[in-house]
Automatic annotation (TrEMBL), chain B:
This is C4-dicarboxylate ABC transporter permease. InterPro entries: DUF112_TM. PANTHER family: TRICARBOXYLIC TRANSPORT PROTEIN. The keyword Transmembrane applies. The chain crosses the membrane at residues 16-46, 58-79, 106-129, 135-155, 167-187, 199-217, 351-374, 386-404, 410-439, 460-482. Pfam families: TctA. Residues 17-435 form the DUF112 domain. Keywords: Membrane, Transmembrane, Transmembrane helix. It comes from the Bacteria.
Length: 324, 492
């Protein structure tokens, strides 16, 4: 209820701001942004999150009409960067890049930071998890895998680490289907995929983009995608809904600001970053790199983060993978 | 054959050739500065390649990759501070050579061995890529575990003269590597509630402190004692005889380095130690190793450069990166809408064969630039000691900070420096510690993954590759023990 109210009032602010900009041009009372904006990326330079942030920042320099720099503050599964964004001055000039881990690490016992510590500006990406087996596997569908697991077969699923989103996504799928898998954590998706190709394990849970090269080469068989819609890069793979499993999960990325940032500043940021999101340059980049495009506005992203936080809390408690 | 023609056409182009040269120069710069790594330079320059043709962009990045792996040896030889983790094994004989007035020769050997190692690696890549990639896939967790156990026996053979101290040093390395979240269950170990410690100890600050800064501390001490020794640089020439004598070492080490590089997760850092150890094991006069044997430098340097081509093998054929640099190279390929994997060979032959040809040219360019540059690098030794070592200290602080912009890494570096200083004083070898830090996590996660996969049984130990490695491990330990005993008997 409260969120809906916020969303409605957010919309009103957006409309008013837009009218204001159109009617009065730069003479409007709100002069934000007049200084350089810094985007804090909690992951290393050169990685997927960093690349999306730099592309978005490059376009947003024009749409927001100010300089934008990207700084990488890495460590502790993103906690260092999330914390820096949450405790920055709430004036809109420090924007944090939030990834799905912000909704997980508190439950995992890694760091205290949660989505409660930040305000959403917009979500720009969602990559659903894909569950894949080797192309020489006897399992032709996710139903085959579930039936085998019900018969007591050991289904060993490689993930990019205990408590990683791809582990939790696979575990959620198993829980929904009422079976149990064995999880083998690797240092990232690539070695987990290699272990499936080498026949050491049966399956892997990773993003669609991460398995796409091996799928195209005919070495991996994707069985299900844990998202609402089929992926362009895996057009023949059914979604969880299509196979009757009520479970969607994956990695997402978005922008956040400190909690006390004023509504109008959040709205201005949302406006100009949305414009950057919709630009041809950004859309092209996301498409060629295989990143899923999902947009949520400030209010929607805020409530989405809260829902995810709730959901992960429940699941992680059940999986008993908390560090302490 | 048309693939080769397309590759030549793409690479033999002024812009591509210029980017190779530029890449090699940038690579040499970041490789020679401790703390700046090839991974970092490739990541920073990656966005610039988006605007270039795929082949041209790859030339720049491959140039950096090859140049950095070579240049790590320059400070390793001259000031005992490896510029990259892969140059840690180069210190073992490179620095003693330099102290004995043979710096020029050591640098020349390092350039030639790096270039030859790289070229051998590229030839193997071009000839055997798909088949070798199949071999890499057969390495599962059990195989990684036994491989790292086998590699850990290097500690024993490196410490024949001081076995107990070597084992203490190695164990210390394994302990340091245990700090932080464990690789399987993400449980914090030795973290004492600290967020920094639970993130784990970074390897590069340890390396910088242990070697470069510890050496600086020792030099300060000497300076206070009024001793300023300035070893001669010696000749830069490598006669035909010398090259002929180093040829078997270089060839063997190149192949070993390539194979270790092929395995995802193991690279030049391990490859150079493995090659060094095997060279020592099969060499006549192995007593000279560790005291400035040119074969030690040739082995380490050819292996670490050969590993670069090895790392590209699973990257290009399977889309699975062989190391952190090739992981970024995948980004450089996918941004152009291409996907690494078998279809890349048929779909974009100009890129695949362009990479083969271009990477070979990178090492040709490296040979020329390196040989021309040696006389410039050694000017470092002409810097008076009282300026040189403070500069090393400052660069070490900056380098450790630059890694993650984290002051904690500077603290780690300083603690490692103090540790390294006292270890040197006490006659504890440093290389075993480095090997422990590198191999500990691979061994542990390999073992635990193998146990999860087998459901708690040890049956994996009896499968062909792990069993072979187990036998080799036992033989290697027995040999080292035998040599240590005969060594102490003869000296007694």
């Amino acid at each position: 209820m409260g969120w809906r109210l916020l969303r409605v009032s957010g919309l009103a602010v957006a409309v008013v701001t837009l009218l204001g900009v159109v009617a009065c041009g730069p003479a409007g009372e709100d002069e934000f942004p007049s200084e350089q904006i810094e985007i804090i990326v909690p992951w290393a330079a050169g990685g997927g999150t960093d690349q999306t942030a730099r592309q978005l920042a490059a376009v947003a320099e024009e749409t927001c009409g100010t300089g934008i720099i990207v700084s990488n503050q890495t460590g502790s599964t993103g906690a260092v960067g999330f914390q820096a964004a949450a405790t920055a001055r709430p004036d809109g000039y420090t924007v944090g890049l939030a990834t799905v881990e912000i909704a997980m690490i508190n439950h995992l016992g890694v760091a205290p930071v949660t989505p409660e510590d930040v305000r959403g500006v917009m979500q720009y990406n969602f990559d659903p998890a894909a569950f894949s087996v080797g192309s020489d596997s006897p399992y032709e569908s996710i139903e085959d895998v579930i039936a085998a697991a019900e018969d007591g077969e050991d289904i060993r699923v490689g993930t990019s680490g205990t408590g990683s989103i791809w582990h939790v996504a696979a575990a959620g799928l198993a829980r929904e289907a009422g079976v149990e898998f064995t999880y083998v954590p690797f240092d990232g998706a690539a070695p987990a995929i290699a272990a499936v190709l080498g026949g050491q394990i049966e399956a892997t849970s990773a993003s669609g983009a991460e398995v796409a090269p091996q799928v195209e080469a005919g070495e991996l068989r994707p069985l299900v995608v844990m998202g609402e819609e089929r992926l362009d890069i895996l057009p023949d793979t059914p979604t969880t809904q299509e196979v009757g499993i009520d479970w969607e999960s994956g990695a997402w990325r978005g922008l956040v600001v400190p909690n006390d940032t004023p509504d109008d500043v959040v709205q201005t940021l949302n406006e100009c970053f949305r414009e950057a999101y919709e630009s041809e340059q950004f859309q092209d980049f996301m498409e060629t790199q295989g990143f899923g495009m999902v947009y949520r506005d400030a209010g929607e992203f805020e409530s989405y983060m809260d829902e995810e936080f709730e959901r992960f809390g429940e699941l992680i408690r059940e999986l008993d993978i908390r560090a302490e | 054959m048309s693939g080769w023609a397309a590759g030549f056409e793409a690479v033999l182009d002024p812009q591509a050739l210029f980017l190779i040269l530029a890449g090699v120069l940038v690579g040499i710069l970041v490789g020679a500065l401790p703390g700046l790594s090839a991974t970092m330079a490739v990541a920073v320059l990656l966005p610039f390649t988006f605007a270039l043709e795929p082949v041209d962009g790859m030339m720049l990045l491959l140039g950096i990759y090859g140049g950095a792996l070579y240049a790590g040896s320059i400070p390793a030889i001259l000031i005992r501070a490896p510029g990259t983790p892969s140059a840690a094994a180069t210190v073992l004989d490179g620095h003693p050579m330099s102290q004995r007035g043979r710096a020029g020769e050591a640098l020349s050997i390092s350039v030639v061995a790096s270039a030859v190692g790289g070229m051998v690696g590229v030839v193997f890549l071009a000839l055997f890529a798909p088949r070798v990639a199949e071999f890499a896939l057969r390495f599962g967790p059990a195989e990684y575990f036994m491989l790292s156990i086998f590699a850990l026996t290097i500690i024993a053979s490196l410490s024949e003269s001081a076995m107990v101290k070597g084992l203490i040093s190695g164990t210390l390395g394994l302990l340091i590597a245990m700090i932080g979240l464990d690789p399987i269950q993400a449980f914090p170990r030795f973290a004492f509630g600290s967020v920094e410690l639970s993130a784990g100890i970074q390897f590069i600050p340890i390396l910088i402190g242990l070697f470069g800064v510890a050496e600086a501390l020792r030099q300060f001490e000497r300076l206070r004692g009024g001793v300023e020794e300035r070893p001669a640089l010696g000749s830069f020439r490598l006669g035909f005889d010398r090259l002929k004598r180093l040829a078997p070492t270089t060839a063997g080490s190149s192949v070993l380095g390539f194979l270790v590089g092929v395995l995802p997760g193991t690279g030049g850092d391990i490859g150079s130690f493995v090659a060094y150890n095997e060279t020592k094991r099969f060499a006549r006069g192995e007593k000279n190793f560790g005291r400035g044997d040119p074969r030690g430098v040739a082995a380490a340097e050819s292996a670490n450069n050969a590993s670069t081509a090895g790392a590209l093998t699973p990257t290009l054929t399977l889309g699975i990166p062989g190391d952190s640099v090739s992981a970024i190279l995948i980004g450089a390929i996918t941004v152009h809408g291409l996907r690494p994997g078998p279809q890349l060979f048929t779909g974009s032959p100009e890129l695949v064969y362009g990479i083969f040809i271009g990477f070979f040219l990178v090492y040709t360019c490296l040979l020329v630039v390196g040989l021309l540059g040696i006389r410039l690098w050694v000017q470092l030794m002409r810097v008076p000691t009282r300026f040189l070592w403070p500069t090393v200290l400052v660069l070490s602080v900056v380098g450790s900070y630059a890694l993650r912009s984290n002051p904690f890494d500077v603290l780690v570096m300083l603690l490692a420096a103090v540790l390294g200083y006292f270890m040197m004083k006490g006659g504890y070898p440093l290389a075993p510690l480095v090997i422990g830090v590198i191999l500990g996590p691979i061994a542990e996660s390999g073992f635990r993954r193998a146990m999860i996969i087998s459901g708690g049984s040890f049956e994996w130990l009896l499968t062909p590759i792990p069993l072979t490695l187990l036998i080799l491990t036992l033989a290697s330990i027995a040999l080292a023990a035998l040599r240590a005993r005969s060594g102490s008997a003869s000296s007694a």
